[in-house]
Write a structure and sequence with these properties.
Blueprint lengths: L1 H20 L3 H4 L2 H7 L6 H4 L3 E4 L2 E4 H4 L1 H32 L4 H24 L8 H39 L1
Length: about 170
Amino acid sequence: MPYLLRMAALLLVAGIIYSFSSQTYEEQSLVPLLKQMLPGEPFAGALSSCKVTYWGKEISIGTQGYYYFIEFFIRKFAHLFLFGVLAVAWFRVCTMYDPSRLVRSIWMAFAGTAGYAMIDELHQMYTGGRTPLLNDVLLDMFGAVLALALYVPAYTKRRPVWKRIDAVHQQIM
């Protein structure tokens, strides 16, 4: 049963990512919502000096406008977060097979997440109004590394408790 739950979590996260990737930019634009939630462009003065170069293009309030600038950071955070959650879900599935092989599980989770990130960008190539970017794959992979770096130490600290529970469970079965 725990294996099915972990596999379901992995497939759910992959499905959410696929769902977002299937939408055109216009379908998933946050700009109308941001205009409602942030009337009057709060902190625009403080953010006006912030500039980011992404894929050779300057992203700033001056070049994009306030709401598109905010949306850019929300979208990139979503990449980090969703692919980080995907990597952790993948890691949890891998550790079900052999909990003693942590390094292998980490590499498999990272490789699986990186592969899915590449497939996701390829999928976006065939979705109208979307642009596949290598930088997004790199951002997704960074999200995976960051999430695994935060999750695995917590997993290894709790693991002895899980081993005891698993040993009792094995004896019952």
